[in-house]
Amino acid sequence: MLINSLVAIVIIIYIFSLLFIFCYSLVQLNLAITYLRNKRSLRKKNIAPPNSITDFPLVTIQLPIYNERYVVERLLDAVSLIEYPKDRLEIQVLDDSTDDTVQIIEKKMEQLKDRGFNIMQVRRMNRNGYKAGALSNGLKLTKGEFIAVFDSDFLPKPDFLLQTVPHFKDPQIGAIQTRWEHLNKNYSLLTKLQAFGLDAHFTVEQNGRNIGGHFINFNGTAGIWRKECITNSGGWKSDTLTEDLDLSYRAQLAGWKFMYIEKIGTPAELPLAMNALKIQQFRWNKGGAECAKKYLPSVLKRHDLKLSTKVHAVFHLLNSTVFIFILSTALLSIPMLFIKKYFLNLSGTFYYASFFLISVVILSLYYFTSLAQQEKRFPRNLFQFLAIFPLFLSISMGLALHNAIAVIEGFMGKKTAFNRTPKFNTLASKDSWKSNQYLENSITWMTILEGLLALYFTAGIAIGVYLKDYGLLPFHILLTFGFGIVFYYSLAHSRSISVAAK
Strand, coil or helix: what is 55? Predict the structure, then answer.
């Protein structure tokens, strides 16, 4: 009786996990279809006409900085090249640094002041609220009608403001987000896979949501806000790890419109080391869960939102939750092999496993849409996609344990510091990042578990062969490779942030 109950629980969790992943993939496919149907009109609409600013509004550029000795000078050089009247531009360096970054900024600021820039270095007595706290503190001192935000590893292009500010002629526009580009995409396999995933978000997902009239999010950087939108929506808050997503939902629930412009790209640096990537992923996924817990009830209760917008908001806010279901599906897949073998009366339930295959096919269409729209070199981009998508899928599965724990912590309300992603200013593959002073050797318990899971799914391959059941063999191969690579890179890149969290 107990065994039958356990089998029933395993099957229910397994099937529910597969169904959630399937529904998630359908929502992503809908975004791809929406994007493809509207891409031509979208591109024309988002092009700001030349010399379209006749009355230059005062703009403040906020640069949140914390111990960024490798990239801060590069950032300030890029900002100084932005084409906008100096008397209508204010630059705030929100500097919470505790190392020589402070002196690097001071020296660079003197040079920029000599060139006529209105630039200030804003220091705080404490670092309460981390990045959100710095942005909020800086906002009190701003004079600008519009607030552009750039993280330390981003390099805004000279025409950024000329391309974005004109769109604020629509008084309902509260914020504009632009596309992230990648300075070091070809540095390694790890950076190529990150770029592949981010490009899908910034090509298909953001466009699809924006075109469909659904909620989108400011991505924390490479965007510009109407100051009134920030203040009227309650300002920056630090009670989640994703202050950008938090404010985005508050603003849109308050009636402000957001705009995404794919045409405007802002280059940035991708994390080079696995543990640096994990820090970023943990923050994004935990913060996403915190925002889901905070805003899902409000979204679902709103009577003025379309059903489609509610559905998209649910899966937008629960985006990171998919890792819990990937992990549960993976862990239960090996017990399911034995259930299928020894509980023949339940064999019909295994048709639900086809949902995984269908989900993979649907997601492949979503990601191929992104790649094809960027490259436009068929059939070359098809071969490129067939080479990179299985690797991307595998590594994403390999990060499932790490990201699922982040999501669980977010839903449980466990508070942690805002651990900022290390920056390297290392762009060429021949350059090494290992001398980075913000890193120290470290191997965590998470790394050990990932190695054990690689062995677990290797056993799954062997069990499937032994039982002559090959249905889950591709799944177990992807899992073995994914957890194995994440484990290997975590050891090879066994360095994590040693400085305080931001």
Answer: coil
Burial 96-127 (b: 16+ CB within 10 A, else e): bbeeebbebbeebbeebeeeebbbbbbeeeeb
User: Cβ distance 120 to 93 under 8 Å?
Assistant: yes
Helices (H) and strands (E) in the chain, counts: 17, 9
431 is catalytic: no
Catalytic residue among 95, 153, 244, 246: 244
* Residue 32 vs residues 221, 319, 363, 375: alpha-carbon distances, Å: 24, 16, 10, 16
Q: What is the pLDDT of residue 209?
A: 96
Please report which helix (H) or strand (E) contains residue 25, including its range.
Answer: helix 2-45
**Within 13 Å of residue 336, how many CA atoms lie on the same side as its CB?**
28
Within 8 A by CB and 6+ apart from 132, the residues are 236, 237, 238, 243, 418
Half-sphere exposure of 345 (CA within 13 A, CB side): 3
- Residue environment code for 25-40, b if the CB has 16+ CB neighbours within 10 A, otherwise e: bebbbbbbebbeebbe
Return the residue matching tokens 């209105």: 118
257: closest CA among 170, 185, 348, 382? Answer: 170
Q: What is the pLDDT of residues 184-233, one digit of tens each?
A: 999 999 999 999 999 999 999 999 999 999 999 999 999 999 999 999 99
Give the phi and the psi of residue 422 in degrees, each rounded to 5. Answer: -70, 145
Q: Are 75 and 243 in contact (CB under 8 A)?
A: no
Lowest mean pLDDT among 90-104, 218-232, 359-373, 376-390: 376-390
Considering 96, 151, 153, 246, which one is annotated as catalytic?
A: 96
Structure confidence at residue 89 (pLDDT): 98
Cβ–Cβ < 8 Å for 27, 365: no
> Look-up: residue for tokens 């009608």?
145
- Reported as a single tens digit per residue, the pLDDT across 334-346 is 999 998 888 877 7
Distant-in-sequence, close-in-space partners of 265: CB < 8 Å, separation ≥ 6: 157, 178, 179, 180, 181
Q: Which residues, at least 6 apart from 221, have a Cβ–Cβ distance to it below 8 Å?
A: 149, 150, 151, 154, 266, 268
Exposed, middle or buried: residue 344 (CB in 10 Å: 0-12, 13-18, 19+)? exposed
Residue found under tokens 């597969």: 18
Residue 87 annotated in active site: no
CA distance 21 to 23: 6
Q: How many CB atoms lie within 10 A of CB 178?
A: 27
CA 299 to CA 294: how far, in whole Å?
A: 10
Question: 249-259 as b/e, with b when 16 or more CB fall inside 10 Å?
Answer: bbbbbeebbbb
